[in-house]
Amino acid sequence: MTRSARTALWAGAASAAAVLAMRPLVVSSGWLVGALGAVCAVTGAGLLVRALTHRRGLAVLVQALVLLGVVLALFGGSTTVLGVLPSGSTPERLAQLFDDGVQVVRRYSVPAVDLRGLRLLLVAGSGLLALAVDLFAVTLRRPALAGLPLLGVLAVPLALAPGGSGAVTFALVAVPYLVLLAGTSRRGWVRSPAREDRAALRRGGRSRSSAAATAGGTAAVAIAVALAVPAAVPALDERSLTIDTGPGDTIAVINPILNLKASLGARSDSTIITYQTDQEDPAPLRIVTADVFDGETWAPSTGADIPRSQRVQDGLPQAPGLGDAVRDQSQPRTTTISVRGLDQTYLPLPYPALRVEIGGEWLYESDSLNVVGDGETTRGRQYAVTHLQVDPTEQELRSAPEAPGEVRSRYTELPDALPQVVGETAAEVTADAGSDYEKAAALQRYFRSTGGFTYSTTAPNDGGADAVAAFLEQKSGFCVQFASAMAVMSRSLGIPARVAIGFLPGDEGTDGRWRISAQDAHAWPELYFEGIGWVRFEPTPATRTGQSPSYSVPSTPLNTPAPSSSAAPSAVGPSAAAPTSTAAATPSSETDPRYAETVTGWDRFLALPWGWILGALLLVVAALTPWVSAALLSRRRWARVHDAASSAEAAWAELEDRVHDLGVRWAPSATPRQRAASLLGYAELPPAAAAELQRVRAAVESARFGAGTAPLAPAAAPAGGVVLAQRTGQAGRLVRAQVDVVVDALAATRPRWSRWRARLLPMAGVRRGLDWWDRD
């Protein structure tokens, strides 16, 4: 392998490590398959072109074309010809996906949802990273400059990922880069065979360069210090809600994503908000709502940027869905809020707000009435909110007309891979319910009392696409699980639903002021009823939330028993059919494709836990590499035997490798006679084994310095038989038997652990591979 090829492989390894470092930025890991594939394609194309043409400039062009082909194959879709050739509509499709990805980056906080546009940016960016690193390290022969794109990529998760980036991630990027620097230097760590042989003569067989030891030790100490020192530095407080200001007349909001594996709970009980209100029973303060569910996370939908004309000081519009009749009977209230330890850009408010008296630029979103600062944060803010106290009656909720089609289609959307048990459980829990209100009340009652659920700060074991099903099975979780499960089950019944994130009312002090701590962070579902708008329900048990809203408890209790074993979350087959009276009111789990338990195709492939799969494969490959490489080396060696000389050389090489695994080292400059003598002096071999060793030694000396006719077969075998065996291909087996006799005799003198190591981890193939790698 040439120096250029070694450099290219290390450059590819460093690029792949940097791609893996970006894993915390995205909720799922499916994008890693395409991203690492792009890195491998770019690296492989450069290796192939340089090996065939020795033209570095041409390699860069081919690498760019290969990367383009990968992007077209993965994202071109039906606009491409034969999957890789662009058509007239391909640029438009890629431009749209690129724009979608940019919008996700601008509006979402990490970890972001693995949307297709974001996946295009990640895959294409990974390929461009590999191309840039390869360009600096191989084409321009400036490996130090290759650290610039690597550092740029590594800085992103360090700055944005919750908790920064771990020590393992740093080591994955640092080690390949250091090896890349060393391997491209003539006076670096790459071994020179001539120097090693001279050093071996001086040290009696030990080939270790002092310069290599010094450089390697310095690098190891530097990495260890870089990993250990940050661990001793106090960490900064995390900010889960942030904003990025965009140019122009609008601002771009980075919305929080509610991961079903993450907890909203906090260890600190310090006060972050105090408020005073004329509302007797305050409702939770809402920060933001999430209406898109991908099976693993809830996130706000990507909409248009907020016009700067939508200032809260000028008043907020009427809440979506709130009719004039309910609005007129709702009481206006005033709440004065003082923010202390909360530093974020979303404004905690009672819902629905009418007007906010606050300094600075604060804008509202029309669909959700979320309020976000235009370069403003909440720390130290004091503001007064005029809002409505909407207390719908049970009759109003029961008689609410069907939601508009646009609202139903948007807020009842569910992922195709939603486990079948979720819809089945929702249908059985609400089997005795008629209206949407009765179904919502039945779901709330199921989670709070009849379903056997308990509140716990420990999330269900499954934080992936089956998180809701796992929660229904384990019946234990915190507010995120309860809110998500009720919202998803409501959508499965055709009821528009979303999840709100905010704070519980907190505790009232003796001075009439309410106190909210970080431990009051909370999530709850909001269901849509035409004429009333978005209505809060509270499925989280009373041990955490207290009493549920009065309107959410029907005056006539519903008969809603817990699901039977036929609908237990562990079931995989369809449950018994729902009663005929509800068949028309609820979607059929047997016909509705949203409840398909399994999916096929590309999405199912990407949904696999690729991080664990690749890790397990690497472990298996690492464990099998010594044995497989040694077996292949031995097989190839004996396959080349065609006469007495080649048979002697193969036997001697086989003997050298196997005794080396047993701990016997020979100087590279030693002759076969010296090596045989040292082996006899190292261990007391039986006479038969010693005789076989001398025969192999004499044969290899004859092959190298004589006519190459010294017999290798045991002395008891007739000479004619040996010649015949050599001619018929049986000589290899006879000679290998001689080597086995010597090795078995030597192994009998070694400790048991040494014998097992030589048997399970033969390193001959690995050593030959390293020697081949280090050739200039």
Radius of gyration: 35 Å
Could you say what the CATH topology of the largest domain is called?
C8orf32 fold
Shape: elongated
Largest sheet: 6 strands, antiparallel
Q: Helicity level, as a percent range?
A: 40-55%
* First and last CA, distance: 7 Å
Q: Please report the total strand number as a whole number.
A: 19
State the secondary-structure class: alpha+beta
CATH class of the largest domain: Alpha Beta
CATH architecture call of the largest domain: Roll
Summed up, the domain count is: 4
Give start-end ranges of low-pLDDT stretches.
Answer: 186-213, 233-255, 559-600, 715-729
| Strand residue percentage | 5-15%
Structure in words:
The structure is a single chain. The protein has 776 residues and is of the alpha+beta class. The protein folds into four domains: 3-190, no CATH class; 250-391, no CATH class; 396-606, C8orf32 fold, CATH 3.10.620; 625-773, no CATH class. 48% of the residues lie in helices and 11% in strands. The chain has 27 helices and 19 strands. Strands 9-12-8-3-17-16 form a six-stranded antiparallel sheet. Strands 4-15-18-19 form a four-stranded antiparallel sheet. Helix 13 packs across helix 16 and helix 22 (672-682) runs antiparallel to helix 23 (687-705). The protein is elongated. The N and C termini lie close together (7 Å). The model is unreliable at 186-213, 233-255, 559-600 and 715-729 (pLDDT under 50).
